[in-house]
Specification:
The structure holds three protein chains of three kinds.
Chain A lengths: L1 H9 L8 H9 L3 H23 L21 E2 L5 E2 L10 H37 L1 H15 L3 H12 L3 H29 L1 H8 L4 H38 L10 H12 L5 H28 L6
Antiparallel strand pairs in A: 1-2
Helix pairs in contact in A: 3-4, 3-11, 4-5, 4-7, 4-9, 4-11, 5-7, 6-7, 7-9, 9-10, 9-11, 10-11
Chain B lengths: L1 H29 L2 H5 L6 H11 L5 H13 L13 H36 L4 H15 L2 H15 L12 E3 L2 E3 L4 H34 L2 H8 L4 H39 L4 H10 L3 H29 L1 H9 L1
Antiparallel strand pairs in B: 1-2
Helix pairs in contact in B: 1-12, 5-6, 5-8, 5-10, 5-12, 6-8, 7-8, 7-10, 8-10, 9-10, 10-11, 10-12, 11-12, 12-13
Chain C lengths: L2 E14 L2 E14 L3 E5 L6 H8 L7 E10 L2 E2 L5 H7 L4 E4 L3 H4 L6 H10 L6 H14 L5 H5 L8 H13 L5 E5 L7 H18 L2 E6 L2 H5 L4 E6 L2 E7 H6 L4 H8 L48 E3 L2 E3 L7 H4 L1
Parallel strand pairs in C: 3-8, 3-9, 6-7, 7-8
Antiparallel strand pairs in C: 1-2, 1-4, 4-5, 9-10, 10-12, 11-12
The chains are: A mainly alpha, B mainly alpha, C alpha/beta.
């Protein structure tokens, strides 16, 4: 013991950080990742605050005037305010519509992401806990589903289920749960191969304890990373399905619906109806992806220099 | 090797069989089979006739057997809209989709692998950072929106390329293809680029990650210690190792290209089976949807099979493992 | 005796985020023609980095900061990459520690051996192939034609290391650097590999630096031993002298911790303390915190002293009696 004391005495005093502080410091080391994080926070705030910071409620037909339709950016609305981003075919102020659309897009993405995460995690843990044939069967199903593109699975489901927020969330969950299950299983495989698990088994610790005390905590980091990427994917997928006309109905205009509405006007040069919601969508998806990227680097000890 | 192929083939058959069960019972149990299989504007007498004609009054296992029998004979029902066999319709639209997907895969490999190689070899170079930023953007840009922007820029603003349709085709070895005529190439360029964007980004990332990992391996250092040239280290030692995961993933992504072509074909009015599917969904033409689904299952199983076999050729370890098993 | 390699004042440092790691910090030694030098030290002592420095294979963020590496009279420490490339695998070759990792898993043995010849000589492939076959025969590999067609995973660990040794001798180099070539192998295989290496150096007159943490391995193999600690050579001399009469307290400790038949039943000697933190080395003698005879003088780095045809960095060398 005295030797260890001597050893540490010779090293420079190190400031003690909590794991969270270290994580925060490492995360914000990258300026791009920091920017992405703040953009994402700003987008979420804009979405939450939409009713208070927009001149118009695009769902309230009393506030929407068809005479305002297809006005270019910067035009004055009939009601007197300026439409900085122009208006769409139905006369909705695009700025207001985009903020309200963000609410829907982000809610659908987050809801499906969280549900898929819990289902996938549970299935993955059950596979890891039971092992043997059950695990083999579960993983065959996961592999089988993953061999089909999520976009196609979701497309077929909404085609069968019909339009609506609940239906599209269900479709996205079914399309994505397998990614989480695979992540948990992969971590379980790595952890189970480690010697301490063997040691724990020799000590007679229950399999339950190994799964919940060792495998589950080790899954958290990869799950968070997969979760961010999949949520970005869900937002993008919802927009795609809505654009194709099989996602959300016109009464619940997410960004994808707005872009689809603008498509017909684009060839006649009224670019803004599709372009601005698209930029909002891009910023949302890109910022979540960049945050996920940096999380992957920070949380993955293998990538550290 | 033969044992390996036979075992994989048997697995593939099992998967197709299971998927046919899922599709069949999905259609028959989740939805009302009559509603799913008969045109929505049919009257009561039509429906009764259809129930008998389709054998829906028989037990479900018998029905499944009949469905399977029809499927094996290539009969997946007739389209409500076109009045033709659904399978025939899909096969008719398939070449256009395959052509588009192959062109996109080609672009992804031709652009993605060299860019990924460069950014993996010189990670601190500003050009590499630009490539990586571009690939993140490529991942985040929703395909359909990029398609719109491509049309806006190249077709509407600049007027360089056509925005819709397939253009002239010509016959090469009996296959009608746009790639054989200049007009066809002008038509396919934008949709192929649109479809490949995500895959270019993917190829960049895979190659870059593979190169960076391989460059840190002992065998690279050992090759350097033998005095082997940098060129040989990169193109023989590193590339041969990373081509395995890259080929696997890109091969598997071919299926996803076919899937995503639904979006691209809709935007560019490309007359492939993706466009057919969306039209069928929107017009409730269910036999076409079911047929598309079965064709896709067959397709993905085939792709997985091919990738497995290719993998075993590229990676000697896989082959041995299987022989030992 | 002519010197094949003279290393003087070699310093290789790594400039990391956490600080400068002085992995090699002033190393001097000479290897003569046909001689085997054992470079001994614990992990992190800089012995492998010394080997890679000689070949110019130090990667970012490390580099050779100071010193000369004279190979057959010519300083190659600052030689351009082209020059180094023509030496590597040709005049100086290297055997790595883990044969599982060093052979490329997706290339056949013949490809990997032949490229060592073809990188340096424009000979026909047929001739290169024949030389590889003969080399495999020399290291005791049965049916070498078959082995040449194999992939690395089809060979056992010992077989793979024989391939590495055969590859190292392919171009009849002047010097071979063997970086713990037997550490990853079973003890019986270890003895065979040492035997093959020894036989080949005798036959060809090739000099060798055998890097290891195991004094027992070099005791029977090396002509001279250099003991490294924290980036410096602390004791250097003829093998028998060093083994029988170690002078540096660290060498004494290393020898004391080798289990032998003589001290059966006795408690095995253990060097106190932990291996040094290379980012925060103590001032002066790096071993002083773990040394029983450390004094105030040890705060300044000990110079190299010549004691009884040995080179030593210590203010308090053990008397020969105490060393036993």
């Amino acid at each position: 013991m005295t030797d260890t004391a001597m050893q540490s005495a010779s090293t420079a005093p190190v400031k003690i950080e909590t794991p969270f502080q270290r994580f925060r410091a490492e995360y914000f080391e990258s300026r791009i990742a920091a920017t992405a994080f703040f953009i994402f926070v700003a987008i979420v705030l804009l979405a939450i605050l939409a009713p208070w910071i927009t001149p118009q409620n695009p769902y309230d037909l009393a506030q929407v005037d068809v005479l305002d339709g297809r006005l270019p950016p910067g035009s004055e609305a009939f009601a007197g305010y300026t439409m900085w981003l122009g208006s769409d075919g139905a006369g909705r102020d695009l700025y207001s519509a985009i903020l309200y659309g963000l609410r829907i897009s982000i809610s659908v993405g987050l809801a499906s992401g969280v549900i898929a995460l819990f289902i996938g995690m549970t299935v993955g843990l059950i596979a890891a806990y039971l092992g043997g044939r059950t695990e083999a069967v579960i993983m065959r199903v996961v592999d089988l589903q993953l061999s089909f593109p999520a976009a196609l699975v979701a497309l077929m489901l909404v085609a069968a289920l019909g339009k609506g927020v609940d239906k599209i969330i269900l479709a996205l969950v079914v399309a994505q749960w397998a990614y989480y299950a695979r992540t948990v299983r992969a971590t379980a495989l790595v952890e189970r191969g480690k010697e301490y698990v063997e040691a724990a088994q020799c000590l007679g610790l229950s399999r339950m304890r190994v799964v919940f005390r060792h495998i589950l905590p080790n899954c958290m980091a990869p799950l968070i990373v997969v979760g961010t990427v999949q949520t970005a994917h869900a937002v993008s997928l919802e927009a795609t399905l809505s654009f194709l006309g099989v996602g959300l109905p016109q009464t619940e205009p997410s960004l994808g619906v707005l872009i689809a509405n603008g498509f017909e006007y684009m060839l006649s040069g009224r670019y803004w109806i599709s372009v601005f919601p698209g930029i909002a969508l891009l910023l949302t998806v890109a910022s979540i992806n960049l945050v996920g990227d940096q999380l992957r680097d920070v949380l993955n000890p293998r990538m550290k220099k | 090797m033969t044992v390996f192929v036979i075992r994989r083939l048997m697995q593939a058959f099992l998967v197709v069989f299971l998927m046919s069960v899922i599709v069949f019972f999905g259609v028959n149990i989740v939805g009302d089979p009559i509603y799913m299989l008969v045109s929505p504007d049919a009257d009561q007498a039509d429906i009764e006739a259809a129930i008998r004609r389709l054998g829906l009054d028989r037990p479900i296992w018998e029905q499944y057997f009949l469905f399977l029998k029809g499927a094996v004979q290539g009969n997946l029902g007739d389209s409500f809209v076109f009045g033709q066999p659904a399978l025939k319709l899909i096969l008719h639209h398939m070449p256009a989709t395959l052509e588009l997907a192959f062109s996109a895969l080609f672009l992804a490999i031709v652009f993605g692998i060299p860019l990924g190689l460069f950014s993996g070899l010189y990670p601190d170079n500003p050009v590499s950072k630009g490539i990586m930023a571009g690939s993140i953007l490529g991942f985040s840009l929703p395909t359909f929106w990029v398609g719109l922007m491509l049309i806006l820029l190249f077709a509407v603003e600049l007027g360089w390329l056509p925005s819709t349709g397939r253009g002239d085709t010509a016959s090469v070895f009996g296959i009608q293809t746009s790639l054989a005529t200049w007009d066809g190439i002008r038509h396919i360029f934008l949709p192929a680029l649109n479809l490949s964007l995500l895959k270019i980004s993917l190829a960049i990332r895979l190659t870059r990650a593979g190169v960076r990992e391989a460059m840190g391996q002992d065998y690279v250092k050992y090759a350097r210690a033998k005095g082997v040239s940098t060129k040989r280290i990169i193109f023989v030692h590193v590339m041969k190792n990373i081509m395995i995961p890259v080929v696997t993933v890109m091969g598997l992504e071919f299926g996803s290209l076919i899937g995503f072509s639904v979006v691209t074909e809709t935007i560019f009015a490309w007359p492939g089976m993706g466009k057919l599917l969306i039209d069928a969904i929107l017009q409730l033409d269910r036999p076409v949807v079911v047929a598309y689904l079965m064709i896709m299952v067959l397709f993905f199983v085939l792709i997985n099979l091919m990738v497995d076999i290719l993998y075993s050729i590229l990676d000697p370890r896989v082959r041995l493992q299987d022989q030992g098993a | 005796m002519t010197a094949v390699l003279e290393v003087s004042g070699l310093k290789t440092h790594f400039f990391t985020h956490a600080g400068v790691v002085k992995a090699v910090d002033g190393v001097d030694f000479t290897v003569n023609k046909g001689e085997v030098m054992g470079l001994v030290g614990e992990s992190g002592s800089g012995k492998s980095i010394t080997g890679f420095s000689i070949l110019g294979l130090i990667d970012q963020p490390g580099r050779i900061v100071e010193g000369a590496i004279r190979f057959i009279g010519e300083d190659i420490a600052k030689a351009p990459e082209d020059k180094l490339k023509s030496i590597r695998g040709n005049r100086i070759s290297m055997i790595f520690q883990d044969p599982m990792m060093t052979l490329n898993p997706v290339l056949r043995i013949d490809t990997q051996m032949m490229e060592a010849i073809l990188a340096h000589e424009p000979v026909p492939r047929k001739e290169a192939w024949e030389r590889c076959r003969d080399a495999l025969g020399l290291v005791g590999i049965p049916s070498p034609e078959e082995r040449l067609r194999a992939y690395p995973h089809q060979l056992s660990g010992g077989m793979r290391q024989r391939v590495s040794i055969a590859t190292a001798f392919l171009n009849k180099p002047d010097l071979i650097i063997a970086d713990e070539p037997t550490t990853a192998l079973d003890v019986t295989i270890q003895a065979q590999i040492i035997f093959e290496a020894q036989k080949l150096t005798r036959q060809t007159g090739t000099a060798m630096i055998w890097i290891t943490h195991d004094l027992a391995v070099v005791a029977g193999l090396a002509d001279r031993i250099s003991v490294m600690y924290a980036g410096r050579i602390v004791e250097q001399g003829l093998t028998d002298d060093v083994i029988d009469r170690p002078l540096h307290p660290y060498t004494v400790g290393l020898l004391g911790s080798v289990p032998t038949a003589n001290n059966r039943g006795e408690r095995l000697f253990q060097i106190e303390g932990m291996t040094p933190n290379m980012l925060a080395l103590p001032e002066g003698c790096a071993f002083s915190p773990r040394c029983g005879s450390a004094s105030g003088a040890c705060r300044t780095p000990p110079p190299i002293e010549h004691v009884a045809d040995r080179e030593l960095r210590c203010y308090h060398p053990r008397s020969q009696a105490a060393a036993q």
